[in-house]
Amino acid sequence: MYRKMLVLLDGSELAEVVFPFAVELAARLDLEVVLLQVYSELGREFIPVHRAYIERAAETIRLQVEELQERLSVLPDARVAEVRGELADGYYAEEILHFAEENTIDLIMMASHGRSGIRRWRMGSVADKVLRASKVPVWFVHAGIEDATPYNQWPSKTFLVPLDGSERAESVLPHVRTLAKQRTITPMNITLLRVCDPPIAPSYYSPELSGVPLNWGEFMEQEMTRCKHVAIEYLAELAKRLQDTGAHITPEILVGKAADEIITYAGKNPYSVVVMTTHGRSGLSRLVYGSVAESVLLGISNPTLVIKPAQQDS
After folding, report:
1. Does 200 have pLDDT greater than 60?
2. Which of 122, 150, 178 is the last residue of a domain?
3. Mean of all residue pLDDT scores within the chain
4. CA of 107: how far to CAs of 31, 61, 188, 204, 248, in Å?
5. Which domain holds residue 214?
6. Interval 119-134: pLDDT, tens
């Protein structure tokens, strides 16, 4: 599914938070890596500086990938991950998206700057534009998180997959399958998460008028019981479809407001990569959960793989 990964840099140390992620994925999935730095008109006089930086970054990544592959005992005939640096001149988001399309990129990796996420990236609205318009999945890493453990030092790795029961949400599963099968000594973990959102009593609700012989509390309790029962069967079926990955699969059912529950759960499980889908080509303005997925992206510090339903395994 993934062959070539585009890693976005801007010359800052904060953006380099993606390095451990890029190394891990490249070494474990045999990916070709392209590091890209876009400069504007004001940066043209510093092209030699930009080129020196991007080439040095590419060499750093290449050496770390080779070292990790040696530790993983990669067979001599396995494809050696190629790493190179590139520069582009123009408007940041437009050049990034154009480069990705022209160079058959399968995965984009980028960092935010600070806990505020995509709304305060050093390059203005670049991250937001790329997330909205990218035709390929985007691996989004929050930068500037205090005391964050580098990805290559996580004691375990879990892919946290929020699902709402729709086929659109399930479009992430081929990606989860690929990531779970990466070269590793210890099995990966997959958490399939389903949130049962309690119904809200309408202002006109009346048991006497509707013929329902229950008060609202009893009705809500029955609805939550039903939702949990359906969710158990649903997640069990999805777990069967992922058994061949060799990953440890855990179903998790929560009750509450979807965005709040996902954010809280992700916060309690920091060594998790959240894998979620957007809703169609309109990107972050329309997500599977309505505004839930966008709220999750802005409310967590976990790395997040954002996928559009059309981005299926080919």
Report:
1. yes
2. 150
3. 84
4. 10, 17, 20, 49, 25
5. 154-314
6. 444 444 677 788 888 9
Sign of CA dihedral 232, 234, 235, 239: positive
**pLDDT higher than threshold 50 for residue 309:** yes
pTM to 2 decimal places? 0.87
**Cβ-count burial of 244 within 10 angstroms (0-12 exposed, 13-18 middle, 19+ buried)?**
exposed
Where helices occur in 144-202 by DSSP H, the ranges are 167-170, 173-180
| Domain CATH for 170 | 3.40.50.620
**E strand residue ranges, the chain:** 4-9, 32-39, 83-89, 107-111, 138-141, 158-163, 189-196, 248-255, 272-277, 304-307
> What are the angstrom distances between the C-alpha of 285 and each of 11, 132, 292, 304?
29, 8, 11, 17
Total number of domains in the chain:
2
How many CB atoms neighbour CB 204 within 10 A? Answer: 7
Tell whether 104 and 249 lie within a shared domain: no
Q: Which of 97-101, 170-174, 279-283 has the lowest mean pLDDT?
A: 279-283
The single-letter code of the amino acid at 284 is L
Tokens encoding 121:
């990236």
- Asked if residues 195 and 256 have their Cβ atoms less than 8 Å apart, the reply is yes
Which tens digit of pLDDT belongs to each residue from 267-281? Answer: 999 999 999 987 644
Does 80 have pLDDT greater than 90?
Answer: no
Residue 176 phi, psi (nearest 5)? -60, -40
* Cα angle for residues 311, 313, 314 (degrees, 5° grid): 105
